[in-house]
Specification:
Layout: E1 2-7, H1 19-26, E2 31-36, E3 49-50, E4 60-61, H2 63-73, E5 86-96, H3 99-106, E6 110-114, H4 123-129, E7 134-139, H5 149-160, H6 171-174, E8 193-194, E9 197-198, H7 208-226, H8 238-245
Helix pairs in contact: 2-4, 3-5
Bound molecules: S-adenosylmethionine.
């Protein structure tokens, strides 16, 4: 996968070269390039923002600078596989980013992230980009960050760990929270008893069918308690309904 990030703070993206994403780069699974937006600024001050039309506080990122950056990074508009790049624009005004999106993005060949700052990017950049690439405006939650860089770290990390060959054990993400529409239940490791708290008996029983049922039940109970909204979209079996009713 090719992953381009355009930002006015390239150093913010340094963690993408650590741990699992870093290993993905070393193994050639991920081709990461972080670009300084100011490289496309046209004036001596390398400014990338201007005052908003209509008045109001803050500054807006200029379409001229962003337009040139996208032109250079998305050339040709379609890669050898015939696929258009996907431009991801983090914004609190976007659709909520979910694990389903992470899976969808992980199947793409080229992701391009545009990090906003100040009051965000001139909307015409997004509208014009939509005519020649796929574009998604996504939010990582109902709160406002200072810039898009942290949102890119979140989204990129969620996507990169799904790329084949990145996780040592492919099953770990198949059993993660959200993979079956539910939250994952609790996990335990040694010692068997810690500060008078034993690990649940069933997990030490060696009975795989019973362990699977217990995990499913815990997952259902936790989801019902913390995120009941997820149950509507979950793939529930008849035995699950008894747990939810109890
Ligand atoms: N004026 C914008 C609004 O109210 O929608 C907020 C702009 S915010 C201060 C600056 C940048 O931070 C945004 O352009 C976006 O890139 C990023 N950002 C802030 N909160 C975010 C969130 N919850 N999800 C994704 N990106 C976010």
């Amino acid at each position: 996968m090719r992953l381009d990030v355009v930002t006015v703070f390239p150093d913010y993206l340094a963690p993408l070269r650590l741990a699992l994403p870093g290993r993905a780069i070393d193994r050639g699974i991920l081709d990461l390039a972080v670009h300084d937006l100011r490289a496309w600024a046209r004036d001596v001050h390398k400014s990338v923002d201007d005052t908003p039309f209509g008045g109001g506080p803050g500054m807006v990122m200029r379409p001229t600078v962003w337009g040139d950056a996208l032109d250079d990074l998305v050339r040709p508009a379609v890669d050898e596989s015939g696929e258009r790049p996907l431009l991801i624009v983090p914004t609190p005004a976007g659709r909520p980013f979910t694990q389903t999106d992470a899976h969808r993005y992980a199947r793409r060949g080229h992701l391009l992230f545009a990090c906003g700052r100040y009051e965000g990017i001139d909307q015409r950049v997004i509208d014009e980009a939509s005519t020649r690439m796929d574009v998604e405006e996504v939010s990582i939650g109902d709160y406002v960050l200072i810039g898009g860089e942290v949102a890119v770290l979140v989204i990129a990390e969620a996507v990169v760990r799904l790329l084949p060959g990145v996780l040592g054990n492919q099953r770990s993400h198949e059993e993660d929270s959200f993979s079956d529409g539910l939250l994952e239940g609790p996990s335990y490791t040694r010692p068997e008893v810690w500060r008078d708290r034993p690990v649940p008996e069933v997990l030490r029983s060696g009975n795989h069918a019973k362990i699977a049922r217990w995990r499913r039940d815990e997952s259902l109970r936790r989801t019902a308690r913390r995120r009941p909204d997820l149950l509507d979209g979950a793939d529930l079996r008849p035995a699950d309904l008894d747990i939810l009713d109890s």
